[in-house]
Amino acid sequence: MPGQSQAPKSSSLLAGLGRCAAWLVLLVAATAAILPLYWMTTGSLKLQSDAMKTPPEWFPENPTTANYEKLFGGEDGGAWEGRRPAARWLLNSLLVAASISFSAVLTSALAGYALGKLSFPGRAVAFWLVVATMMLPRQVSLIPLYLLVVGFDWMDSYPGLIAPFLCYPFGIFLVRQFMMQVPDELLAAARIDGAGPWRVFWHIVLPMSRPALGAVAIFSFMGAWNEYLWQLIVTNRPEMYTLPVGVSKLVSTLSEFDLGLAMAGATVAFLPMLAVFVMFQKYFVQGVSVGALKG
């Protein structure tokens, strides 16, 4: 029948148009996400006069590394002259973010295993207390944490930058939800074979939880790397600044706002996060889908 033969063609045409529309939406979204990164990277290769041009230069006509030389060489003629401050700030940020990420993964794995697979009195209460800490506004804890850091004499020190973030409540929640999907029969079989709690955790539960732990590593590293307010509060000496704090302080000391220097600092701050995401992206995609499917 003519009408019947036209129906499959029209449905396939609609399906093709739907796929094209979906690809178009994804292309627009990807462009919107990449454009700021492109503008930041190219802006770091422009002098101040070129970075402030109107209309703007989409492609640097006179690319230069002067902003990076100024950032890492302290050649701005101001308070940072001859000190190469950004190298120390970058090292501080890497040390702080890596320490926080490692501690977040470790504590999330241990607490998630205890809350998800071990039976003990008060387990449900402990879990909901962890969830409750996720609901507290960050500003509520700033003053108590500051008083603790001052009391321990940790101002302008690595412990003061790291200690308040050693535990990651969202990571505990994520790992616990993931471990709830690990079959209890598998753990029971390991215990029958003589495996103790630590051996079950290390050889069975931990390898199976890599996707969730990878997601925790990314989230905690990015959160620690982008942290600004707390690092600004507890650091006063330039040698203890992290990269976000140091770059903002450096730009603010100039007599005129240097857009190229700010873009160079933002580019340097972005690269480690990109590297961490690339390394853990497989685990990240699997980890954030925890709870999306049953079974």
Structural write-up:
This protein is 73% helix and 0% strand. It has 295 residues and is an all-alpha fold. The protein folds into two domains: 2-73, no CATH class; 87-287, MetI-like fold. The radius of gyration is 25 Å and the shape is flat.
List keywords for this structure.
single chain; mainly alpha; MetI-like fold; 2 domains; 14 helices; 73% helix; 0% strand
Topology (elements, then pairings):
Layout: H1 2-43, H2 48-51, H3 66-73, H4 85-117, H5 123-135, H6 138-151, H7 158-162, H8 169-179, H9 184-192, H10 197-208, H11 210-226, H12 229-234, H13 243-253, H14 259-287
Summarize the structure.
This protein has 295 residues and is mainly α.
Q: Give the overall shape.
A: flat
> What order do the SSEs take from the amino end to the carboxyl end, as H and E?
HHHHHHHHHHHHHH
Q: Report mean pLDDT, rounded to a whole number.
A: 81
CATH topology title of the largest domain: MetI-like fold
Structural class: mainly alpha
Q: Tell me the β content.
A: under 5%
CATH superfamily descriptor of the largest domain? MetI-like
Low-confidence stretches: 75-82, 291-295
**Mind telling me the C-alpha Rg?**
25 Å
Question: How many individual β-strands?
Answer: 0
For the record, the CATH architecture of the largest domain stands as Orthogonal Bundle
The biggest beta sheet reads: none
Helix content: over 70%
N/C terminus separation = 46 Å
CATH class of the largest domain: Mainly Alpha
Number of helical segments?
14
Count of separate structural domains: 2
